[in-house]
Amino acid sequence: MLEVAHLDAFYGDGQILHAIALDAAEGERVAVLGRNGAGKSTLLKSLMNAGPRVAGAIRFDGRLLAEMPSYRRAQLGLALVPEDRRIYSHLTVLENIAIARYGAAGRKAMEPRQILERFSMLKPLEERYGGQLSGGQQQLLAVGRAFAAGPRLLLLDEPTEGLAPVIVEQMAREIAAICDEEKVGLVLCEQNIWFARACTSRLYLIDTGRIVFSGGWDEFDRNADLKQRYLAV
Ligand SMILES: Nc1ncnc2c1ncn2[C@@H]1O[C@H](COP(=O)(O)OP(=O)(O)OP(=O)(O)O)[C@@H](O)[C@H]1O
């Protein structure tokens, strides 16, 4: 479904990503792990054409995205949940989800209440205004809301940042379940290894803008030095 080849990304004259190769099949879930500043957010923004200048090839369903603007990519079924959650503070949780359905562009949108059922911690907050939510609750809402427009490939940028461990566990279960049921693929950028493992079947490691490892979790575990070299702070 997604094929990325030789992707370079730049902010001004500064090159951030170097010859990135990455793919995800229909419904497949992959993780991208790396330290702060490794280039994870830049990668997701590049896939969405939401900031950096890029060179190289990004294909979705075999189609070269090239200069295609973000909103068109969203219409094809790509959905980015950025690190800053962009919750509407004057709308309720239910309304925040409902308004996101307009991005469905011909695909089958999900019922907002169906999403609330799938994310059990959001359900009791249904009538709460976005501005009244804690940071963690806003993160949950941003993730749940991303399913509203019926995405085909979700790009999640560090959804666990700042969340309590018990919430992280529940979020992993719920994301994996909804992706399975709705056949949604995932590119998950993370620093939380436990969460990334729980949500995906294989991973990429990124370091100073380069992919330095790609493989399954078993292979990652067998190479103990990878964690030390590329993820330890
Ligand atoms: N808008 C920008 N303009 C210039 N440089 C940027 C910009 N955004 C990010 N960078 C730089 O690009 C590099 C990669 O940053 P990026 O945010 O992609 O990393 P990250 O892996 O997502 O890290 P974090 O976990 O801290 O968000 C960093 O050196 C950062 O300073």
TrEMBL record:
Domain ABC transporter per the UniProt entry, residue ranges: 2-233
GO BP terms, alphabetized: L-amino acid transport
InterPro entries xrefs: AAA+_ATPase, ABC_transporter-like_ATP-bd, ABC_transporter-like_CS, BCAA_Transport_ATP-bd_LivF, P-loop_NTPase
Record key words, sorted: Amino-acid transport, ATP-binding, Nucleotide-binding, Transport
Pfam families, alphabetized: ABC_tran
Annotated GO MF terms: ATP binding; ATP hydrolysis activity; branched-chain amino acid transmembrane transporter activity
Signal sequence extent: none
SUPFAM superfamilies: P-loop containing nucleoside triphosphate hydrolases (SSF52540)
Family, per entry: Belongs to the ABC transporter superfamily.
UniProt protein name: Branched-chain amino acid ABC transporter ATP-binding protein
Organism: Chelatococcus reniformis
Source organism phylogeny: Bacteria, Pseudomonadati, Pseudomonadota, Alphaproteobacteria, Hyphomicrobiales
